[in-house]
Write a structure and sequence with these properties.
This protein has a five-stranded mixed beta sheet. Helix 9 (142-163) crosses helix 11. The chain has two domains: 1-32, no CATH class; 35-207, Carbonic anhydrase (Beta-carbonic Anhydrase, Chain A, 3-Layer(aba) Sandwich). By secondary structure, it is α/β, with parallel strands linked by helices. The N and C termini lie far apart (52 Å). The protein is 52% helix and 15% strand. Bound molecules: cobalt (II) ion. Keywords: Lyase, Metal-binding, Zinc. Belongs to the beta-class carbonic anhydrase family.
């Protein structure tokens, strides 16, 4: 059986099992969505938002791209934020990066001429890496540098989101959280929760060192 066929067979099994477990499940899905969380994560296949948080369809409004980046000038990520905040009225925006991120690693390497779209997309991340060069070189191994940049990248996206008029003008404004997922044990670490006042300091500091 080819791979797409396998996916379709699995889908039939999932639909049957879901309906058997919860007979009202699909009827509720048809009625509409009311997610409370916008998830901005990496496209990496190893970090599926719903799976790692045990969420169901309807729980998360999801945007994923290489290295979980948010650009206010990019209609793709900005439209997702706009819809999530203004129409769905989500209470939380979670940026979830991950250790061992290939997009983050690429930002520390010379651009690959075969990947012009990726290069353009991660240009702000490359710029962030340059401004953080000193701090990153304090880490001995490439792996540590990639992982530290992955954390600082999450904080930078959080800063951008918190500064976005879409978030600032919302009433109530959604809380913006920064998380990072570890591939080696499946656990998420909270870098900034959006709840504590000192979080703002962490983000501001990261933003200043990135500015
Ligand atoms: Co990644």
């Amino acid at each position: 059986m080819n791979r797409p066929k396998r996916l379709l067979v699995a889908n039939v099994a999932w639909a049957h099992e879901t309906a058997a477990r919860n007979p009202g499940f699909f009827r509720d899905l048809v009625r509409g969505q009311n997610p409370h969380v916008l998830w901005i994560g990496c496209s990496d296949s190893r970090v599926p938002a719903e799976t790692i948080t045990q969420c169901e369809p309807g729980d998360l409004f999801v945007h994923r791209n290489i290295a979980n980046l948010f650009h206010p000038g990019d209609d793709n990520s900005a439209s997702v934020l706009e819809y999530a905040v203004r129409v769905l009225k989500v209470g939380h925006v979670i940026v979830c990066g991950h250790y061992g991120c290939g997009g983050v690693r690429a930002a520390l390497l010379p651009p690959d001429p075969g990947l012009p779209h990726v290069n353009r997309r991660i240009a702000p991340l490359c710029a962030l890496a340059k401004t953080l060069r000193e701090e990153l070189h304090g880490h001995a191994s490439e792996r540590e540098r990639v992982d530290r940049l992955a954390e600082l990248n999450v904080l930078e996206q959080v800063r951008r989101l918190r500064a976005s008029p879409i978030v600032l003008e919302a009433d109530p404004a959604p809380l913006v959280h920064g998380w990072i997922f570890a591939l080696d044990d499946g656990r998420i670490k909270v870098l900034t929760s959006g709840y504590e006042a000192d979080d703002a300091t962490t983000c501001t500091t990261a933003a200043h060192s990135a500015a």
